[in-house]
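Anyone able to model this chain together with FE2/S2 (inorganic) cluster?
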Amino acid sequence: TGLQRPAGDPIVVDDPGRLTFRVDRRAYTDDDLAAQEMTRIFDRCWLYVGHESEVPGPGCYVARDVGGRPVVMARGSDGVIRVFANSCTHRGALICSQPAGQARSFRCPYHDWTFSNQGELVGVPIPDGYGPGFRKADFGLARHRSDSYRGFVFVTFDPQQPRTLTEYLAGATEYLDLIDDQSEAGMEVIRGAQLHGARANWKLMMENSVDIYHFRALHKRYVGYMESLGSVPPRRRGGFGRALGLGHAANELPPAAARPLAHWTPMFGAEFRPRIEATAARFAERFGAERAERITRTNRALLIFPNLMIIDAIAITIRKIDPAGAGRMAITSVALAPKDEDPDIRELRKSHYLTFLGPAGFATPDDIEIVESCQRGCLNRTVRYSDLSRGMNKEVPETTDELPAREFWRQWDRLMQGDGGRFEVPHRAAGTPAGIPAGTPGAEAR
Ligand code: FES
Ligand code: FE
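re: yes, here you go
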């Protein structure tokens, strides 16, 4: 069955002829649409679960909600990472109520059924109550299809999902490479997550997380502070937005003074300079000057459809944004860092992460407040559409354009309308502006 709306009454109004792009605000407020998103998007896509470094050794596990479902990502005693339904096969209780830990087995608290960390049912108390038709082998934990790319673990609840994870990630793999290549020793999630939320639709936060248009306007206090210290505003730094296919998108721009280098960077401080230079030289040798420059010096915000953001700026934030009905969302934030980072730089990174991107930082409270404001504003149904057409008139959109949001919405629309989501390779821009690596797809795929 199609969406319950008349033909000619689309949610996403994409008009390339007039270079306009509008989204009907019911997409943020309508409960029926929110329910359909769960089945048409979250039950079908590949969804981010966590990072392999969060389960470093045999028996390590994390329990979290993904796409509205409680799951456990566990590394078995055999070293294999699996994702299970966090639901006892007896009568449904969560078999794991701790957010993280290490265990040889999971014991359900209700009747003590016990499952190995590889998912088999290994123990049932008082077994004499079952007949010959009851076989433990039939009651192992339900295992979800999962896979990882460069350490990022995803799951899909759709047995018919036709794409491998790598196919699904499309052009986003290039950016995951740039993020993971920041350390020869590998990247790791810093222990501890920040769990927060907002009284707003989840898509408002996805748009916000990749929107640089708002930066100077909304974060005036931070911008004023940084500029007083010599930082250059994003627009004057250049850079570009890119559609990466299948709803994924990125912004890429040269760093502010706040972050001269990605992973070994102090916000300020000449005492770090020799180490920065040494690392930069090592990377140039390994990757060549151009790629090393891009890995180490560029800021990027990566949107992976539907609900993952990786903001690689003054620290690397992994932000998972989950719907909780039309008007609420849950946000999980963790920081990613090189495993071999020097302790003093790690401290600096954590401070950047907490003081800028954290829920009590310089920027995120502004963003939470404004998406809640949008949600309230959208409840006045007289104004029907939001506009996301900025930059459609350009061959290569700037970072302050709304290309990433349009890429997100086009995929949202395809999936909500029941089309598996055509994948068109974003075509290459005619002119390649300075600072953009050759082969960069700049313009929009429709
Ligand atoms: Fe888990 Fe009964 S519900 S043992
Ligand atoms: Fe912001």
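Residues 49-156 form a domain with the Rieske Iron-sulfur Protein fold (CATH 2.102.10.10).
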